[in-house]
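STRUCTURE:
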């Protein structure tokens, strides 16, 4: 049985109080939302904070406001279960509620949060093991070792991003609010991630992700943005993605001409990667030759390594197929 190490738990009632505690304790402290990622990591001694700051007692982090016309603001502690069943969000952004529904199992979605899923630790076959296993291979670059066992000649860690909500939020242009004792700052979700398996977030250690801002799917001139999400995993019941594809397109009033588009690939790199979509602008969703070309080009971003499930070549080919399926699905989204 793996047991948690000893730690001191704090239960602040406001975001400001939590930020102050995080600032006071520095690297010794870590915040916890639902605990579905941090606590297993602590049991495996991947993370060993001596002080844990719980966010579950902060009411403002559970609030939700807005509508389809003005956009939504979701507190970071919004549970994944609440998100997947939110009818207003589903009407505006069904891809996001669909992505939430694909995460893990119902009990873990009851505990897990939207903010926590965005900040999910990167994953790797050589990392997601117990302490004794990792010690047996002399640890790895992500913690306690000096070699990335996926790419031994590399100077960086290649653990992969595995959040399901992140690619959708990147694709639709969502933003997050980060809070520290210095104040607040608001950045695009796409800017939250760094391409490194260890330092995978641009969020500072003393910052707390407090809110997620969803834009309105409708434009001022009547066009509408559609989005879809596709996920590859071995077991459809609860596995992390080994490939995730999000596609979004703002369409003109005719419903097929593309005014703006985004494609995001995750699960094959240390961050969600935005693919080039310039060829789509002015094109049509019923132009299958165009969609095929864009999917082929975007698949070049998928560079799977031997750090998750399935054969590398097969995953590479599936990236192209999933991208094409996502683009085609926008017509009926």
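SEQUENCE:
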């Amino acid at each position: 049985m793996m047991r948690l190490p000893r730690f001191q738990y704090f239960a602040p009632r406001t975001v400001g109080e939590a930020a102050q505690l995080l600032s006071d304790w520095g690297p010794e402290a870590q915040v916890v939302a639902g605990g579905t990622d941090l606590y297993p990591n602590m049991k495996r001694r991947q993370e060993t904070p001596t002080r844990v700051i719980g966010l579950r007692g902060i009411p403002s982090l559970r609030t939700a406001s807005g509508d389809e016309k003005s956009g939504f603001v979701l507190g970071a502690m919004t549970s994944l279960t609440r998100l997947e069943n939110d009818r207003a969000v589903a009407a505006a952004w069904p891809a996001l509620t669909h992505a939430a529904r694909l995460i893990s199992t119902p009990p873990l979605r009851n505990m897990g949060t939207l903010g926590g899923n965005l900040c999910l630790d990167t994953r790797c076959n050589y990392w997601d093991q117990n302490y004794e296993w990792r010690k047996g291979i002399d640890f790895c670059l992500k913690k306690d070792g000096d070699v990335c066992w996926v790419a031994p000649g590399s100077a960086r860690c290649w653990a992969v991003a595995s959040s399901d909500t992140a690619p959708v939020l990147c694709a639709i242009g969502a933003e997050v609010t980060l809070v520290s004792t210095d104040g607040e700052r608001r950045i695009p979700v796409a800017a939250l991630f760094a391409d490194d398996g260890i330092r995978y977030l641009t969020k500072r250690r003393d910052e707390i992700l407090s809110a997620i801002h969803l834009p309105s799917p409708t434009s001022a001139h009547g066009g509408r943005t559609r989005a879809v999400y596709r996920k590859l995993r071995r077991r459809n019941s609860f596995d992390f993605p080994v490939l995730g594809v999000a596609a979004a397109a703002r369409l003109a009033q005719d419903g097929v001409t593309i005014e703006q588009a985004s494609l995001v690939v995750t699960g094959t790199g240390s961050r969600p990667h935005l693919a080039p979509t310039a060829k789509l602008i002015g094109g049509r969703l019923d132009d299958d030759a165009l969609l095929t070309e864009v999917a082929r080009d975007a698949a070049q971003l998928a560079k799977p390594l031997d750090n998750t499930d399935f054969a590398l070549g097969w995953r590479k080919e599936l990236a192209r197929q999933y991208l094409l399926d996502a683009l085609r699905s926008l017509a009926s989204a």
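REMARK: The first strand starts at residue 8 and ends at 10.
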